[in-house]
Amino acid sequence: MRINCDQCGKKINSISNFCPFCGTEAPRRTVLFTENKQEIKNPIFCVHCRVKNIPEAIYCSDCGEHLYKKPIDNQIFCGQCGQKNKSKAKVCIECGLSFLDWFSMKGEIAEKLGFRGNLSIREKMTGFIYHFISNSEFSIGRNSTNDLVIPCSWVSGNHCHFDFKKKRLIDSSTNGSFINRKPDHIKSEPLEFITEFNIAGSFTFPLIKKENLYVFHLGAIMDEKECRRNGDGASFDKLRKTYFIIQNGDFELKIQKLDGYIGETLKPHSKYYTFKLINGFYYYSDKDRNIENMLLIKNTNTLPANWIKVD
Ligand SMILES: [Zn+2]
Ligand SMILES: [Zn+2]
Ligand SMILES: [Zn+2]
């Protein structure tokens, strides 16, 4: 018999104590018949208690522990073959599984569980939204078909776009795009010279360049009162709290806590979240919560507690 998890809604076995997908204690139902324990194909052994789990499981259905987190006691069970190993073991004495890979969820494990592709998430405390994007082009304009929409009548329908392959910002607007506070309309400018770009003389975006990354968000609005009369102010406020992070390969990015800031350099002694992309997979660290290089998993319910996935 199968029941649904109260927390994540996924189907789970009625004899599970914990949901294998989100780790929540499973709903207690009176089971009116004895269940034949189903044989699990390619099981994952719980590294804490050795119980077999379904291959998609992230939490043990029996003891509720995270299957990829290292236990603190003096023994571990191999997740692949169930063999008992010393807690300091680097590889399984029976099957040779690398525990380093297992507990940092790298290699094949990442392949199976990891999230890939564009990622949009919001930090609950600050409300800041971060769009991690790997497209080679990125468009800005008033039309809703653009990647970044600025609903203001001074902005052209399709105002300008980034070509990240050619590494240029290309204008196609009536009121112009500007860079680095210079007065001339640009046509096509190489990104390496741009530290700031401006849309229609009104919306200014600082452009931050990091290894394999371009990062920008709405910094300032000139003639803001006038702009709000000609557009949708709520959208402007949202853009101020939205970072666009265009990626081109593996990266490491630090996001400052409390103010959600991403900059060229971080303020001294600041606390931060770290996002890494390794072979297309996202890893997350938060030192204060003892989270280090945690693989972001396809199942959205396993995002770190203070983050939420957005569209
Ligand atoms: Zn669940
Ligand atoms: Zn267990
Ligand atoms: Zn093993």
Structural features, described:
By secondary structure, this protein is mainly beta. The chain folds into 2 domains: 1-103, no CATH class; 119-309, Sandwich (Tumour Suppressor Smad4). Helix content is 8%, strand content 32%. It is built from 4 helices and 24 strands. It has helices at residues 99-103, 107-113, 224-229, 233-240; strands at residues 2-4, 11-13, 44-45, 52-53, 75-77, 84-86, 119-123, 129-133, 137-141, 148-149, 160-163, 168-171, 177-179, 188-190, 196-199, 203-210, 213-216, 220-221, 242-247, 251-256, 272-278, 281-286, 291-295, 307-309. The strands form 6 sheets. Strands 7, 8, 13, 15, 16, 17, 18, 19 and 24 form a 9-stranded mixed beta sheet that branches. It has a 5-stranded mixed beta sheet with strand order 10-9-11-12-14, with no helix packed on it. It has a 4-stranded antiparallel beta sheet with strand order 20-21-22-23. The longest helix has 8 residues, at 233-240. The chain starts with a strand and ends with a strand. 30% of the residues are buried. The mean pLDDT is 91. One zinc ion is lined by residues 46, 48-49, 51, 60, 62-63, 65. Residues 5, 7-8, 10, 19, 21-22, 24 line the site of one zinc ion.
